[in-house]
Design goal:
By secondary structure, the protein is of the alpha+beta class. It has 3 domains: about 140 residues, PAS domain (Beta-Lactamase, 2-Layer Sandwich); about 70 residues; about 150 residues, Heat Shock Protein 90 (2-Layer Sandwich), CATH 3.30.565.10. It contains 10 helices and 13 strands. Helix 6 packs antiparallel against helix 7, helix 8 packs parallel to helix 9 and helix 9 runs antiparallel to helix 10. The protein is elongated. It starts with a helix and ends in a 7-residue tail after the last strand. The model has no long low-confidence stretch (mean pLDDT about 85).
Amino acid sequence: MLRKSKRAADLSALETDLKNTDPIANIILRNIEDGIILINAEQKVAVFNPGASRIIGLTAEQAMGKDWTEALRFIDRHGITVKDADNPVRQAFRTTRPVRDDDAFVLTAGQRRLPLHLIATPLINAGGQVAATVVVMRDMSEEREREEAKTDFVSTASHEMRTPLAALEGYLTLIMADDSLSQEAASHARKAHQNVMHLGKLFKNLLTTSQSEDGRLSHHPQIFVLNDLLDNVVAENSRQAATKEISLQLAIERSPDAAAPTAFHLDADPQRIQELLNNILDNAIKYTDPGGRIDIGVKPAGGFVQIKIEDSGYGVSPKDLPHLFQKFYRVDNSQPGTGLGLFICKKIVELYGGDLWAESEVGRGSIFYVTLPRHQTSGG
């Protein structure tokens, strides 16, 4: 009874505040482009400004006094209703903290899937309870269309460039195989070939990046043994490590009573997992001084397998560490690279419900951790 009385008092105070709102604030509320919705403690819509009407497609009369879920129907990018745990408004009411969602989608009154930037801010009363929540949202349709146009252009350009680059690489390979070339000409051909290979990797990474950003990253999951793939990855990178006399070691944890290392089974695309590990190792080799070490450790972590890649390299500063997995971010511009490798790694890991993070100290090296779900129906 006391709880109902307190809620009624909150609602009464809220209504009084709304009636006494400054005229200038009302002008702003009516004319601002952003949608603003006030949801009271009874989960009813108390304010629904014209911006919200334009975005959602309902009039204020249709929304006011109704349950907010009738106006704000949150869905994911595939059109499926989001779970309560992922619903930003329910999160704000539950946690009593502002919730920001830069990748929200709502289903409008016209059944259109609309991308939004949204902030849900709870209003806390004197008793520490949520008296209401303010939702501020912005229609991101035009921005998303521009982003998709840029992504499509990059994807098309990257795809179209692969054929002439493959031809160039083939011709340069033939030229380098010609024993009659002078030492100078052979050197020029090798440098040209290296640059063509670098350009090919750049276009491949651009294509992978554009595909991962719009959900088109191709992959063909299958059940495979991670141990075998790791052996191939180490063998593939040993040659590059050897040119700098870097020790590259792999250690797979085994049970105390087991004669052989634990076999870890994954349900993923082995080519994508190999791409992920090759990118991390390529960085480790690139940023480790000659004579250094790179150690790969593998162990179980609950229903996941954890891969730990530790190097004795330069290390990453605290300023750069939070940005390592951002697109086009490069710690050292003096080294060749696109700034896309670790971004792609993060996308691949997320594709399979895993995680990727790094720890580092300047002058002492870096540790990259990869966790991936183990295949649950097998012994590994």
